[in-house]
Amino acid sequence: MLARCCNALLHRYSTFLYNYxxxxxxxxxxxxxxxxIFSFVPPVGxxxxxxxxxxxxxxxxxxxxxxxxxxxxxxxxxxxxxxQLTCTPPGNSTTTRKRRNSQTLKICDPYYYRYRxxxxxxxxxxxxxxxKDLKAICNIEKKIIxxxxxxxxxxxxxxxxxxxxxxxxxxxxxxxxxxTEKDVTYAKxxxxxxxxxxxxxxxxxxxxxxNECTKNxxxxxxxxxxxxxxxxxxxxxxxxxxLALSPRLYDTxxxxxxxxxxxxxxxxxxxxxxxxxxxxxxxxxxxxNLKLLTDAIFPALGLVMVxxxxxxxTHSVLIMALTIFSVITSVIIAYFIYxxxxxxxxxxxxxxxxxxxLIGIGADDAxxxxxxxxxxxxxxxxxxxxxxxxxxLSHAALxxxxxxxxxxxxxxxxxxxDITAIRLFGIFAGTSILIMYSLMITWFPAGxxxxxxxxxxxxxxxxxxxxxxxxxxxAPDKTTPTPDDGQLPSSDPPSPAKAARHPSDTGFPSNTQPxxxxxxxxxxxxxxxxxxKFMSDLFGxxxxxxxxxYPIWLIAFLALGIGMACAVTVSPGLxxxxxxxxxxxxxxHILEQYNLKYKSKFRLAQTNENNxxxxxxxxxxxxxxxxxxxxxxxxxxxxxxSFDVLKPEGQKWFLxxxxxxxxxxxxxxxxxxxxxxxxxxxxxxTSSMNWTLPLNEIQLESCIKFYYRPECHNxxxxxxxxxxxxxxxxxxSLVFPTNVPFTNDYETVxxxxxxxxxxxxxxxxxxxxxxxxxxAISWMRFYALQKNLGSSTITSLGVSLAIxxxxxxxxxMNWVVSxxxxxxxxxxxxxxxxxxxxxxxxxxxxxxIVISVxxxxxxxxxxxxxxxxxxxxxxxxxxxxxxxxxxxxxxxTLAAITTFIx
Length: 902
Description:
The chain is mainly α. It has three domains: 1-45 and 289-458 and 788-901, Multidrug efflux transporter AcrB transmembrane fold, CATH 1.20.1640.10; 65-90 and 610-778, no CATH class; 117-280, no CATH class. It has helices at residues 2-19, 21-40, 64-81, 110-115, 131-144, 163-170, 181-199, 211-215, 217-227, 252-263, 283-294, 297-314, 317-341, 353-379, 385-412, 420-440, 443-459, 496-501, 519-546, 550-569, 590-598, 648-663, 677-688, 697-707, 746-762, 781-812, 815-838, 845-871, 877-901, and strands spanning 117-123, 241-247, 269-270, 273-280, 611-618, 722-725, 728-741, 775-777. The longest helix has 32 residues, at 781-812. The relative contact order is 0.12.
């Protein structure tokens, strides 16, 4: 009953397409124009995508870790900047110490060198710590980074910081070029003698035995903190690499001038010293944004090559034009729906990848439609256009529906990911594929029907000579459908002579050739004939002949899939990323060298203490109530209504017990610069004021007024103290050091996170009334991404495969074929991911997108074969396999080629 109803609907739709193809041919461009207006015209359309921050959106949202990170680093900071919270109660005046402007200072504040400088890295095969090489570094730096007044932070920061200028500053030289060999020797001996004082944090100790180290502590700290690698004076006395830091206001044009004039070709060098890396602000991302625009020519060239393949395969400008139009239209309509219907504002640059693989999917659908249409003319040689449409849609539309639905579902499955960019990519890609399918069953056949009817009117007959697909000849099915009653009558095909005078313009291959050909035409037909013969032999003879040994093929490919799966899951395993820096250029690119190769070798980008710190918060809920589909929308800070520091038990626990509990933790690491401020606060309020705990409200306010003097006008994540809203304490934070060195290694940070959770459950969760609901976190924004990438990717894969299996089973009602299809898809994915793992890839954002695309394409190609096998009218498994190969093999092969090209 259902099949009969579907056949009736299909017949009516085929008749409608035949009678009114112009409806789709007119309405589709009109709708496209509307989408263009509401997508790209500024008054009514959204803002153009901004890819200046390509890493934006590359973080999970809504996870337990990220809720804490967002509260610590985003919403709490926003509340302070907006004036909702202060770090001192009203009436407490704080004074800001002003820095004296000494006329003798040659070096400005280290903050500007660390965070506001052009960073250049220099390398030599020999020891760089000599006068000649240090002067060479100064010369190279001065040559490539001009002292342009417009880009200076301020006049005091004119001087670049390098070993040469640092030595000049302590030896009273006016410039780097005036230092002597004696100055260099003095500086190296000073660093050697003061190494232990630096690493033991004794440079500021008034009881330090070395007055020379204390006297030159700024020089020593600058050298070790900013200029030399972490091994210098610890593991080796030779300096192989060093930095130069030039404070400048960041400007894209200024940075691009430096890059294009000095760094885009041969890198500057003098004697044995060579500049090997360069970093300035976000110039790497700005350059990437520019390259996205200039490199758009490559997808365009890929589209041209796909168009040529379409033209060669189908022998039709029409099919080529319809397919290219469908691809472009799909992307534009999806963009319109993305912004105007779904109301999504953030458009990550990953969405651009949709256009690339959509070309392959569109070509795949066109090839399938082309082959089935050619088969329809073979099966129903005397049928009408309606017969051919109905036959084509009954076979091609089903195949395209199954593959399009499952492929889009594979991309939509990314919605389960917590990472914003991956989630949005899945929405955009899935929507584009569904729109492509809609066009392939409306616009595409309407164009074919319109041209077929027009050609027939020109010829003056209702039917046309049978044209076989020269790519592969299909044997007619044993069961040949007959035209339905009421369809247009069919007449005999015209004579060959008449056919030659009116070559086919249906958009499909024809064996009709002109009587005379030019050399290019002869060459084209010769190449096309050889390609056709190769395809015919491959899918008509060679592969069917190899089916005799199918057990060997099954065992071999299954073993390959299992082996690659072991490579992914066991050894070497799919590794999580170790660098928090998102790579946008090749590893050898000058703009990537600092992050990939040299950054970890210096202390410049490391924290002052080089160890993780743990931050405890009370009074605030660890929540992320923003829009998870907008990277910068974190919502508002949520307060814990149960927090009350005046509750006796809670106050005593915070001031008396918490610090001792912290020191008992196995990951706690004491250093001389850290004090537990609740203990200091308690001592001042009880001993100095002769009060006892718990303090009442008046006593607490008095103690805060006299002894509490923090400043948070430059609040950052290191703040340690109280937060006020008016006179009321709304929250507090406590920071303590750990013994875990700062790293991006997943296992190390994962162990620290486990320790923090244990600390929370054993200490914070057992806090008395008033101090309950406290929580702890560390520097774990990148760890949250590492942790989520693995789980989200596996979840998306599982959802995609489950949907593909369900759709295949429902449409085919054949569980054996469905299981074979899913096993094939799993083996394809295992082989693809395993190949990446064996090549040293780590599971980062782009790699997870590659996996998503691999899922979509493997589902698309595999299910084409499954559907073709099921709908085949042949009897016997071998004949059904041969029929499926003949019908789908060339189309899928060329679709894979076009996808690879793009």
